[in-house]
Amino acid sequence: MLASYLFEKIKMKREYSLNITLKCPICADTDFVVDNDQYICNSCKTSYERFQLIEDNSEEIELSKHELLNKIKSDVKKEILSVFKNSKVFKVKK
User: Fold this and answer.
1) Which of 12, 18, 27, 71 sits at a 20 to 30 Å CA gap from 53?
2) Residue 89 domain-assigned?
């Protein structure tokens, strides 16, 4: 019950999404031409498959995921504190 309430409050408060721009591992350009299943860097003309680009950008993807999770944790903590702020039954440590 409390979890669904918190989820709805946080969901309504802010949309959480990740938009990560994949970079070419060779030249760090972000502009690709898609030809069938191949992603061709517009700058250095190196060709990649989608999974290769994701694998080569995995460090940036993980960093972005952790940043988003930290934002979500912070918002959940704030919401829990506000829900139980004036409670005489429950005390929440900060």
Assistant:
1) 71
2) no
